[in-house]
Amino acid sequence: FGIQHDGEGNQCAGSGHIMGSEGALNSVDLAWSACSREQLLAFVRTGQADCTDDLPDLKDSIPGGKPGLYYGADEQCKIAFGGAAAACTFARHDVDMCGVLSCHTDAADLASCTRLLVPLLDGTECGVNKWCFKGRCSSLEDLGPIAAVHGHWSSWTSLTACSRSCGGGVVARRRHCNSPRLGVPRGGGGSGYLFPGLQLRWGISGPGSPTYWQGPIQLRAPKRWPAFGGRPCEGEALQAEMCNTQPCLKTQLAFMEEQCAATDVKPLYLSLELPSFYKWTSAAHYAKGDLLCKHVCRARGKDFMVSRGEQFVDGTRCERGVRGDEEVLALCVAGTCMAFGCDGKMDSGKKTDACRVCGGDNSTCFSVKGSYTEGKAREYATFLVLPRNATTVRVVNRKPLFTHLAVKIQGQYVVAGSGTISLNVTYPSVLEDDRLEYVVSLTEDNLPSWEGVRMDGPVQEDVEIQVYRRYGKEYGSITSPDIIFSYFQPNEKGEFTWASRLGPCSVTCGEGIQQVRHSCFDQTRGEMTSDLRCLKTPRPLATQEPCSLAPCPPQWKASKPGKCSATCGLGIAPQNVSCIQVSSGLETVVEDALCPMEKKPPAFVSCTVNVCPLGWHKENDVPPLEPSAAPFWTHQNGSQSVYVWSPLAGECPVSCGGGSILLRYVCLDFDTKEETEEGSCDQALKPESRVDVCNPLPCPPSWFRKRGPCSVSCGGGVTRNVLYCARQTGEKEEEELLPETHCKDLPRPEEQEACNLQLCPPRSLAGHMLDRWKVAGLGPCSSSCGLGVAIQTVICIQFSRGREIEVTNTSCPEAEKPLSSIPCINRMCPYEWRSTKWTECSVSCGSSIQTREAFCVSPQTGARVNPILCRNSPKPVIVRSCSLGPCLEQARADGRLGWENGTPAPAADRMATGATPGPRVPGERALDLPRTGKASPSGKQPEEKTPGEDHTGVCGRLFLNSTGLINMTGLQASDCTIAIGRPLGEVVTVQVLESSLNCSTGEMVVFSSRMMWRMGCKRLTLSVINARTNTLMVRQRLLLPGSGVVLQYSSAAARKKYHQECDVQLFGPRGEIANPAPSASVGTHAACRTFIDVAPQHRIAIHAVHVDLSIQANGAHAHYILIRDVNNMKTSVFSGNQLFYWLSTGNRAEIEFNKDFADIRFRAEYWIVEPK
Question: What percentage of the chain reaches a pLDDT higher than 70?
């Protein structure tokens, strides 16, 4: 804006104001200097500020939004010092970190910070649930109502290249929990980072026992959480899998030693001035877990180890260091020691069986067990030579006091061998996948209690296990060894073994289970054989494994039915229907448009209350009781029991398509609910049995066929099937024809089948000739659409010496002759609806309805046919409204604008006459903005349409009467919206009298209010919609003209309060808005609201014309107004003394006044604007 620093080319002081050139530690709440004010005004007067004339973009406005929530300390450092800058990782304890911007300006120097004497932006995170505000680190509650935003993952990165060429490398991919950005670490503070040049060092007192020596280090980064106090992302951030698993020429230990030796030329600074150089080797026997993966190496010939780099190469072996993880394969991944399953996947938990088969069941090998208690004095005696490919070797000596074990590999001792017991040994190292482990367990007196040898195998070298005994048998068994051993050996080739076989998946899509059964397998031939050959070993038990197919498409899911509407007998119960997508066993609600609308379950289902005293819900039918008379619904036998008639429904004969169910009444003992003889109940009160409809849901579509005649009467011929798509209806197995698109996903039956396969009888004197009928040709179908007749030519043929000869028809039996006429169908006929004339209006005055009959006809014959044939065509409207002039009572009601009982609406007077702006209050500021649309507060405003003004159409109208009939049929508009409005305290209810919507083409109607939303098409007739508040929007979407719904609405006093006493409802085309004062019953803690509803064809413009300026606003108070655009559910915030101009995108707006706004005088105007 062309404003210079104070003190540079002007007379203002260089400090004390916002543009001060000298800076100040406390630069919060500073004001603009006089020099800055003059330069800004000059900048505006010269027309250079035209770019600020546009209205601000309020679509992302958040109540109480602070800039630090979006620009963290790192971003602020980059803005101040460049892209390489970052927030300082440490702070002075005597300075609030929010008062000064401290940054690392050099990425290579993290030991120093550069400070800028400006505070961090309000909202910058400065600790756990703490945020910068006004230059101080404050708690989250001090910043205002900011909703927590939980973490969301970014998308996965592509897989990295394999980290090693052999020996087992790693390919990995990552995702980041950065939506929203990560906040400050929780639980670890803000310090403890390792700076370059400062090394970590341990002294070594023995293998596997490092002791802390010098320097801070942070092995794992502190956990960082999403901003705004949200929860972290759920799930893993890293996925890794092994690659290039073929063995290398060198060992895993040698691979780590090479990485350590590569740092020999890198100096070690034990002091800041003097560098030292050492030869570095692996610290595998001294460090474990994540510490080892941090490139920790040991100095050769010295007693310390340090971190020589950031991390080892991914895929470097490590030792987990967790008890119970001895069998887990561990690899370094991103500087962390991670567990891998035998399938090569990180954290899969997949393990090998005793045969070393990944995920096996021990069926490919057999166990060998033994014991040994002999030996020679002062000699090593071999008691076990392991065979090749032996696995899971376990050897334990339970008497190691005078004996001990020894192990020779390829003729060389690796355990003991010198006549004394060995220390713990891991050969060749703890990093090898195939290693030998020898362990000695000591007592409290440091005497050996047991020793053991462990090898997972498979063994590929010559291994001898020996025992040494110090004394001979002269001392008895106390000096003898007590050895037990076991190992597994693969089954020999040529034997039979149980092999697993996977069954089919239990589902056709998504995730299911499959049975794993076992059959006998011949390993020599490599094929399955009779199970009798494997009976020498028990058959493994059948198991189940998960299986995964292509994801299932979205499908409808109905909740459990709610409370039945009937006190007894048949009724209806509501159920919630939602479109769900199942993935990984979890159900996610998706948009209804993703599910097939023709398969959507109904919103109401039938229900039956079987045990219910008759008449409880018919109070008006209860006859007066005499003192000595029993209740009309009971029959009392003395004073012992009460008997009632209760409805009992039988089973529905069909599962879909609509069947008939008999509802009869039986006599029940009301206390025990048991059926008893009918004589115990009053026969005069027994209701008549009746038949009701059950399971009315339509059956799923399926392929049906009509079989044609066989081409021959014997000897094997062909019959042609006429296929068509239909669904069954009713108990009589009637069929409803459907377009073939409904069956496109179903397996289509064959159109031709073999028939009459029996042999033909001989019909010749010499046995060489056979006579039979043959269909020689088929003529065209007699109808171009629908069912027709095709004529086929039938001839009599004779087989003679392999040739067909046509003979006279008398040679073939007339009883076996195929039909000459067969049914055929080419395509469905486009049947059409027709209707009778409208009936007379059913009243002599006022509004009512007219009806007519609609029927389906064939276009060829004009005859009436089954209405099912016209299902895919829009049905004509059979109910419409009619008016013969107002009645006397109605005319009086219209004089009150439809408000019942003479109670005025809160804003009815202002709405009816309009409001003109009053004289301007001293101190008032006007917002001079160009008017949008065709209206202005001072000019002529478009009038609100009310019922009775315009009968050309209902679309875009606002209905304000207490009751009415709305006909939305026969419209040319594909999208029609109407609104119904009543005073606050009432509830609007709508009943659908008639619906002719074509659901198969996607036509629908949507009902919405401030407290409910419902969309539907099927079974709308006679359904009731409760708005739960005083306004309701109805939007109808058509694809074909002529369809629609007929609605009847009414209003009544609300049973449950849904608004504050200070709330105001406005309906008029223009009016005045003032901040309502809360009443004493509401209290000062409640926020008052003003609701504005206009006709759906209009938009709403709001202009704030006056705000009391006696209160100086500095942006820190809590006086604000929220304006919510109900159409797109976006909220705009206007605070303090701000004058504003606001325009909606729809016809509804809600204004909420903060509780502190009651102390401020506020006035605004609103008017309707025609949409562009």
Answer: 75
Residue whose structure tokens are 């900048």: 43
What mean pLDDT value characterizes the chain?
A: 76
Q: On the CB side of 288, how many CA atoms lie within 13 Å of its CA? A: 12
Question: Residue 599 — φ and ψ, nearest 5°?
Answer: -105, 10
pLDDT at residue 620, rounded to an integer: 35
What DSSP string runs through 638-659? TTTEEEEEEEEE---S-SSS-E
At position 194, the amino acid (one-letter code) is: L
**Residue-level pLDDT at 901:** 33
How far is it, in rounded angstroms, from Cα 718 to Cα 466? 82
Buried b (16+ CB within 10 A) or exposed e, 827-837: ebbebebeeee
pLDDT digits (tens, 9 = 90+) for 840-859: 877 777 667 778 888 888 77
Cα–Cα distances (Å) from 218 to 186, 193, 307, 308, 877, in that order, read 14, 6, 12, 15, 77
Q: Which two tokens stand for residue 268?
A: 């070690």
The pLDDT of residue 182 is: 58
Whole-number Å distance between alpha carbons of 935 and 1068: 14
Per-residue pLDDT at 768 exceeds 80? no
Query: Quick check: 217 pLDDT over 50?
Result: no
Distance separating alpha carbons of residues 343 and 1106, to the nearest angstrom: 73
CA–CA dist 1027, 847 (Å, integer): 24
* Cβ neighbours of residue 827 closer than 8 Å, sequence gap 6 or more: 784, 785
Task: Determine the 3-state secondary structure of 889 from DSSP.
Answer: helix
* Alpha-carbon distances of 77 from 66, 114, 126, 1035, rounded to whole Å: 17, 10, 15, 52
Which stretch of DSSP H or E encloses residue 779? strand 769-781
| 875 close to 1043: Cβ distance less than 8 angstroms | yes
pLDDT at residue 147 in the model: 58
**Mean local confidence (pLDDT), 197-226:** 40
Which candidate, 718, 709, 722, places its Cα nearest to that of 751?
Answer: 722
User: Of residues 326 and 908, which shows the higher confidence score?
Assistant: 326
Contacts 24+ apart (CB under 8 A), 85-90: 88/113, 89/190, 89/191, 89/193, 90/190, 90/191
Query: How far apart are the C-alpha atoms of 30 and 754, rounded to whole Å?
Result: 97
- What gap in Å lies between CA 657 and CA 943, rounded to an integer? 51
- The 10s digit of each residue's pLDDT in 105-118 is 888 888 888 888 78
pLDDT per position as a tens digit, 943-962: 344 433 343 478 999 999 99
Residue 516 CA to residue 541 CA, distance in Å, equals 9
What would the DSSP string read from start to end of 522-547?
ETTTTEE--GGGGTTSPPPPPEEEEE
pLDDT tens digits, 566-604: 666 667 888 889 999 887 777 888 888 889 888 888 888
Q: Distance (Å, rounded) from C-alpha 544 to C-alpha 564?
A: 41
**What one-character-per-residue DSSP string does 550-568 give?**
SPPPPEEEE------S-SS
Look up tokens 């800076």; give the residue: 23
pTM of the model: 0.38
pLDDT-derived band at 939 (thresholds 50, 70, 90) equals: very low
Give the tokens for residue 316: 């470097």
Pick the closest to residue 347 from 327, 360, 328, 323 (CA basis). Answer: 328
Is residue 912 helix, strand or coil? helix
Looking at residue 728, the DSSP 8-state letter turns out to be E
| pLDDT one-digit tens code per residue, 1002-1029 | 888 999 998 888 888 888 888 999 999 9
Give the integer Cα–Cα distance in Å for 986 and 1054.
5
Decide if 240 contacts 172 (C-beta within 8 A).
Answer: yes
φ, ψ dihedrals at 563, nearest 5°: -70, 135
Note the Cα 755 to chain centre separation in Å.
Answer: 53
